[in-house]
Amino acid sequence: MVKSLHELREAGVNKRFLDNVEGYFEDIEGNVSIGQKRAGCIELVTKLRDKSFLHKFRANNFESRLLVDFRKQTDEIIRFVLSFMVWTFLEDDANAPVLQLVHENGIISMLDSMLDSTREILLIAKDKKTNMSKAAQSLVADFCNLIKKSKIFNKLPKVLSPQVMALATLDAVIRGLRQAGWMGDCLPIAMVRKLVKILEPFQGERDLEKRKRIDPLLVEIPVSILESHSIGSESARETELSNEELGTLANILPGVMDFEGDDFTSVQLLTLRLSINLTNHRPVVCDTFGRQDIISRLVGIAQAKFQALSGPLEENRRSVELDFLILSLALMINFAEMSDAARLAFIQGLLQIPQLDTLLLLFLERLGRAAEADSMEESQSNVGFGYLSILLGNLCQNTTVRNLVRSKMPEKTLAPLVNAVLEFVSHNRKVDEEADEESWHKGYTERLEQVAVRLQNIEGFS
After folding, report:
1. Which CA distances in Å does 50 have to 206, 264, 354, 399?
2. pLDDT (average), residues 43-56
3. If we measure between CA atoms, which residue out of 286, 373, 269, 372 comes closest to residue 326?
4. C-alpha distances out from residue 206 to 89, 149, 306, 339, Å
5. Looking at residue 462, what is its pLDDT?
6. Which end of the chain is more exposed for a tag (fewer CB within 10 A), N or C?
């Protein structure tokens, strides 16, 4: 059968593409010099930034030939380039096959080896030990400009080092694995410890002005990695951390909340989510995190967000304020559910007014409004009111706290609190009924029901 002119041209174009790709592989595979391999890797990843080339490359399954043997890489320049190469594939399509490919071929191990390298990659390229010609150094400089034009960082790093490159790629890998349904421990405990070490300068007890001078990416990306890793982690690597390391993670919460401006909203929310994941069903961790200073900060957030949500707000702003409110209350719920020391911390205020008094004031102010919500603002505030009710219900596990709560309630009874908890449980049951299948939320509703049962038993009514 005679092929058409179009088919012949298409075959020719495809052959030239395959020949070009083979040329790149000849520069990076086999017994080639380290200089040739560095240049070949940079040239290939530069070409892969072209979407048309990238899609043809993937259509021919060349990534399975390229993304191999990460554990064997010892050259800093090549590891740096390969890291960005992996990120490029994940940015294009973080599908399960490519995630499995890079994970099984040792990407975590290679990135781990990069976390200790904090020097600018251009300085590494110019180092005599690296042994790069001026032309090769220029190639690295062009590559750095390519990276800066990409979306790998939401802001330019102060130092474009192997460390910050590894963090960005690791963030994409762990997030991708979690979204693909991989719930195992992806990181060795030693690597988790390295991430915690990177976060140390951002602790709330450190000087604020010094914290502001450190690259914010060095808190944003490690927190994002740890938050993704802590989601659904079956064996909870983070619980293997020492008390000192858990203390560092606890201190990060007030540390990031000190930063002002919308640029820090994302890392503040991620830090709250990370703290929730770490303290969930873990009494020892709740003891570490449930300190007076942290509780005071969380109560302050809740108070401010209740106030903000009571008035008109632009839609995106309202969503952010609601996230802060729910997450701050959810974290305190974990403390109150699992730690008696934390429960007592709510009545041992650092200031004149204990934090429990502020929470009770918020509850009583909204008690009459909850059943009459007829606007979006009031409905969203009601969700917060539900979480606040659960928090107070869990705090009532402590007799001293319970007596204080009862003394502030109308008619000196816990009935208003019990009814508020039951109303929130009822709301969550409706959400469960509308869900198509079994979900984590049904287990969460069961936890809420236990708060109501416990309060009912205490008060002697049903």
Report:
1. 44, 32, 59, 65
2. 96
3. 269
4. 38, 33, 29, 27
5. 46
6. N
Q: In the structure encoding, which two tokens stand for residue 65, read together? A: 């030939």
Q: Which whole number is the average pLDDT over 117-132?
A: 96
Least confident of 128-137, 165-174, 342-351: 342-351
User: What pLDDT is attached to residue 411?
Assistant: 87
Structure tokens at 403: 């007596």
In the numeric block, the tokens 């429990």 are attached to 356
Residues 324 and 256 sit within 8 Å (Cβ to Cβ): no
Task: Write out the two tokens for 281.
Answer: 């069903």
Average pLDDT value over all residues in the chain: 90
Tokens of 352: 């004149």
Three-state helix/strand/coil letters over the chain: CCCCHHHHHHHHHHHHHHHHHHHHHHHHCCCCCHHHHHHHHHHHHHHHCCHHHHHHHHHCCCHHHHCCCHHHCCCHHHHHHHHHHHHHHHHHCCCHHHHHHHHHCCHHHHHHHHCCCCCCHHHHHHCHHHCCCHHHHHHHHHHHHHHHHCCCCCCCCCCCCHHHHHHHHHHHHHHHHHHCCCCCCCCCHHHHHHHHHHHHHHCCCCCHHHHHHCCCHHHHHHHHHHHHHHCCCCCCHHHHCCHHHHHHHHHHHHHHHCCCCHHHHHHHHHHHHHHHHHHCCCHHHHHHHCCHHHHHHHHHHHHHHHHHHCCCCCHHHHHHHHHHHHHHHHHHHHHHHHCHHHHHHCCCCCCCCCHHHHHHHHHHHHHCCHHHCCCHHHHHHHHHHHHHHHHHHHHCCCHHHHHHHHHHCHHHCCHHHHHHHHHHHHHHHHHHHHCCCCCHHHHHHHHHHHHHHHHHHHHCCC
The residue behind tokens 């060795």 is 188
Instruction: Evaluate if residue 350 carries a pLDDT over 60.
Output: no
